[in-house]
Structure formats: C-alpha cells, structure tokens
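dude i think i finally got it to work??
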Amino acid sequence: MLSGEAHPRNAETALNECIDQLKPLLDQDGNSVEALALQSACYSNIVRYKKFEAVLYRSRASDRLRAAFKLAPKNPRVLYLSAIDALARANPGSPEFNLAFEQLELAAQLFEQSSATTIDTPGWGHAEAYLELGRQLESRGDVLGARNWIEKALIMAPDYKAARRQLATLVHS
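look at this
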C-alpha cells in the first residue's frame, strides 16, 4: 500500500499476495479478527488496481470488516478500518461523518493504550490511525491537535513519508 503511487504493479502484487496468504488462515480459523481486518484492508486497497472487479472486492472487504467488527468491536485496527470506510462514504458534517470521526478517535485512543511491540499484536495501524486523525483535525481547524497526532504517527513510524509530508504542509500553512 505504501508503494502504490510510485510502483502500482508492486502494490497490486503485494495486495494479491496479502489476500491469498490470508485465505488458508481464514479457512482454518474464520474468527481470526486480525486476519479478517487485514484481508479487508487488502481488498479495499486492491480496488485501485482492479477496476473491473471493484464491486466484488468492495463487497468482500465489507464482509470481512463486518465479521471482524462483530467479533471484536473494540479492536483498534477494526475500528480504524471501519472509520476510514465510513469517512470515505459520508458527506462531511453529516451525522454519519461525525460518527465515523468519533470512531477514528476511539481507534487512536485504543492504539495508544495497546502495545505495538508484543508478539501477539500486529505492528500496523497505529501510525495510520494517528495520521488520519491528524488530517481530520486539520480539516476541522484544530492545527495543534493535528500536529500532535501527526507527530505521534512519526514517533510510531519515523520513516512514514505520508506523515512527514502532512506535517510539513501543516507547518507551512
């Protein structure tokens, strides 16, 4: 997903591999929240590269995310992905958009409370949620809040180029 803009073929291949590698795990344990969430994210992102299958992949992404949410409604990765999906579909300022924003805030808070370094915890989602919360706060005019969350994203992932760019634009605005 990170190399998608510069290397679309590599991103498409990686997303296909993500989906395929998770299939046996989900066949073995259909209640693996982390596998459902990750496969949902992969299906959601491969839509950019597979226009003809977009409807099918969006449906699969939604199915996986709904299943994961049902199993673990307080999982920060599941909340983050659900919030991103809802923010993309809702009109800014609508009740749905505001609910999605609250869900994103909750995901970021839950990420803060969880450890990113244990063997049982996947190492993704923290920085992404923090960056997105920073972007949302900036769009609401909360520059200080935005800066705090973007800096937290960079603490979690110092080489996160999207967060670096966002912080640079925030500082120069």
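Residues 96-173 form a domain with the Serine Threonine Protein Phosphatase 5, Tetratricopeptide repeat fold (CATH 1.25.40.10).
im so relieved honestly
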